[in-house]
Write a structure and sequence with these properties.
One of its GO terms (molecular function) is triacylglycerol lipase activity. This protein is α/β, with parallel strands linked by helices and about 280 residues long. Helices cover about 40% and strands about 15% of the residues.
């Protein structure tokens, strides 16, 4: 298997950024966000069968990709990183922080969820569209349904949708299905409350794919975390790259470390009922 890796040069102090994209997305889609991050080293890669990466010899699960990401990070000469995950990549970011905690300095979770049973899903019409890579394979389809899928500025800004579609490198159908398979049945609800990394959770108020309640759930479950809700949709890293990047850089460069909350020692269902929640 050949993995296509991107490395944007910049400062790696105190750590580089390891960036995980959403399902079916090649790393070029995140170029505006990476540019807005400024002088920081960013590492990303196309998932197996997506963008310029070839198909793997066998199906995989999220824990396998987390281990693959550790390998990529070390091949790039780093032992740890600040990890940012978007949507599907947010699930992978949680898995990475759990599988290799010493390699994750800080964690940023964008437009993502913990998984069943601690998650609020998309509507059936949106969910059905996510089961197919059609939006990546047909530019016209992306432009037509971007607002319904992504919400926020994509609802009215057709030029934004066209620009986003122009940077798509068509994924293979098999690669997309393998990503679906990897996350099917996955959940962090059983262990996310054990994470110790300082964590920033960012949600979009108008997110059809990952309703903002999921951000509140994650921030409640992860002990050393805080939540930001933007007046945007699912792809706020694309529609508001500078605002998102400013939040991320301030978090990564600031002093946000505190003692783990009491909820860190309790399972998710108890944490959700703590303090009158």
């Amino acid at each position: 298997m050949t993995l296509r890796v991107a490395r944007w040069p910049g400062s790696s102090k105190p750590a580089p950024i390891l960036l995980f994209n959403g399902i079916g997305g090649n790393f070029e889609l995140l170029t505006p966000f990476v540019a807005a991050l400024g002088d920081v080293e960013v590492i990303s890669f196309d998932m197996p069968g997506i963008g310029g990466s070839t198909l793997p010899p066998y199906p995989y699960r999220m824990r396998h990709v987390a281990r693959l990401a550790v390998h990529v990070l070390r091949r790039m000469g780093h032992e740890r990183a600040d990890v940012i995950g978007i949507s599907w990549g947010g699930a992978l970011a949680q898995q990475f922080a759990h599988t290799a905690p010493s390699r994750c300095r800080r964690l940023v979770l964008c437009a993502t969820m913990a998984g069943s049973p601690a998650a609020w899903p998309a509507s059936p019409s949106v969910f059905l569209k996510l089961l197919s890579p059609r939006r990546y394979l047909r530019p016209g389809y992306m432009e037509k349904y971007a607002g319904q899928l992504y919400g926020g500025r994509f609802r009215w800004d057709k030029e934004l949708a066209r620009d986003y579609a122009s940077r798509i490198k068509k994924p293979s159908r098999a690669g997309y299905l393998l990503q679906l398979n990897a996350i099917t049945g996955w959940t962090s609800a059983l262990w996310v409350w054990r994470l110790r990394q300082p964590t920033l959770v960012i949600a979009g108020a108008d997110d059809p794919i990952c309703p903002p309640i999921n951000g509140h759930i994650l921030a409640k479950l992860i002990p050393n975390s805080r939540l930001e809700v933007l007046d945007e949709g699912h792809l706020f890293v694309i529609s508001q790259p500078q605002i998102t990047a400013n939040l991320v850089r301030n978090f990564l460069e600031g002093d946000h470390v505190r003692e783990p909350a009491e909820a860190a020692h309790r399972p998710w269902h108890e944490a959700m009922h703590a303090d009158g929640a």
